[in-house]
Amino acid sequence: MTNERGRGWIVPALAVVAVGLILLSALGTGVLAANVSVTASPVGTPAPRAGSATSGGTTLPTPIQHVFLILMENEQTGIIYNKEPYETSLAKTYAWGGDANSNPDHVGYYAICHPSAPNYLSLTSGQSLQCGSDSYSVYKVNNLGNELQQAKLSWVDYEEGASVTCQTYNSGLYVVRHNPFTYYSDLRPNVTGGVCDTHVLPIANLTNDYPYNSTPPAFTYIAPNILDDGHNTNATYGDDWLSTFIPKLIAAPWFSSSVIFITYDEAYEPSGAYNTSGYDGLIGGPVFTAAVSPYTKGMGALAVNASHYDLLSTIEWLLGLPGTGTGHDDTPEFPAITAWFKPKLFGPGVDLPYTRLPYANLSGYDLRGDDLEYANLTGADLAGANLRGAYLQYADLANASLVGADLREADLQYADLSGASLGGADFAGASLEYANLGAAVLTGTSGDPTDFDGATLAQAYLKNAVCGSPNYIVASGANTNAVYVPTACSPPL
């Protein structure tokens, strides 16, 4: 059985229409199931789609098909921004994390802790492993490399100065503490033919030897040697190296569908002491971070705090991956940094099906006509967003804020809106058939009622929906066939 868009499957529990309140209650449960599990894949894993742009047979959820992560060393933001010319030019041309050293509220992008290794590990596992130590250890934790493997997405780790694949010891200008993928047991370090052995590759000279002309994989991690990353040199040396390397990536034809994240591992004071400022328990100090892409051009500095955990969440979102499930990534505290891509990547009329953006702040975004079928927007802030005519079938909007959002003519069939805040939202003419509005807050205000005029709510599940007294809801001409409506919500529903 196919739905009207021909996606190829519908959850059987939702395909059978039954009458009666008992069966409607069961259908409400079915809506939840439809959004989280169709196969044995991990919760939230995007269903496979045709038209692959990667080696794994899965189209990524945004037009960005190639994600780069480049780590530099040991400088706080104030040492880079407005002092080093090339990185300053990147910040002024593209999106960046902001200068927490200089703004009065100290808002910006922060590292996790000190010294180097735990920041590299946090960026790839979402966990604060071995804060206080640069030692080499092997951890049995979920990580970005394993996520890429499970999703069958192509990836590579280029280590400048390494002499062998998956090198687990220091030599010359290579240090293992800058190579997090050697730390994870599921990538089988020290095993010939293991994932680490086949994906973590030595490169003699990144500037000269990087394969610029070949299409990159879905994810590329780049670790410059300890001269080029500024560790054994200084900020100016690192800036000069970036000015020779990054322009070659920008000039490549595939840059049109790429993003290059450049960040520093941890922050030092000019005196050489650790900078331990931060937020939400982070003590790694403010570090310069840039997001270089055609989709971030002109976006400027973040207006909120972010961290290495948020950057991992962002990479996972762009690659269509679930969070690690064991770390701080993909959580309300550390969501994907969508603000770097507004409005370039979002609407109106963009194709974002299956994308995972739980807890993201999309408040006020223009998402008119966007295709967000099966999207995971659990807990997302969509207050005031323009979703008029958006395609949101099967989308997971549980506990999301849609206060004051424009959802006129939107298709929300089978969507999960359980626990969502819908006060003042405009659903006029929207299709909400079989949608789960259980425990959703429907009450608007006297001046801004929640509007269901002409909406189709047939077979929708509204048990335990929350309505005030008066409820400030309008629903002239709405189709509420076979809908259980809590007493407090009726009239007018």
Summarize the structure.
This protein is α/β, with parallel strands linked by helices and 493 residues long.
Describe the 3D structure.
The chain has 493 residues and is α/β, with parallel strands linked by helices. It folds into 2 domains: 190 residues, 3 Solenoid (Pectate Lyase C-like); 249 residues, 3-Layer(aba) Sandwich (Alkaline Phosphatase, subunit A), CATH 3.40.720. Helix content is 18%, strand content 9%. The protein contains 10 helices and 12 strands. The protein has an 8-stranded mixed sheet with strand order 5-4-6-1-7-8-2-9, sandwiched between helices. A two-stranded parallel ribbon has the order 3-10. Helix 5 runs parallel beside helix 10. The protein is elongated, with a radius of gyration of 24 Å. The relative contact order is 0.13. The N terminus is likely disordered.
Mean pLDDT: 88
What is the chains' assembly state? single chain
Q: What is the alpha-carbon Rg in Å?
A: 24 Å
How far the N terminus sits from the C terminus, by CA atoms, comes to 32 Å
Low-confidence stretches: 1-57
CATH fold title of the largest domain: Alkaline Phosphatase, subunit A
Globally, the shape reads elongated
What structural category characterises the helix and strand content?
Answer: alpha/beta
Strand order within the widest beta sheet: 5-4-6-1-7-8-2-9
What about the largest sheet? Answer: 8 strands, mixed
CATH architecture group name of the largest domain: 3-Layer(aba) Sandwich
As for the number of domains, it is: 2
Question: How many beta-strand runs?
Answer: 12
Strand content: 5-15%
Count of DSSP H/I helices: 10
Tell me the CATH superfamily of the largest domain.
Alkaline Phosphatase, subunit A
Name of the CATH first level of the largest domain: Alpha Beta
Helix content: 10-25%
Order of helices and strands, N to C?
HHEHHEEHHEHEHEHEEEEHEE
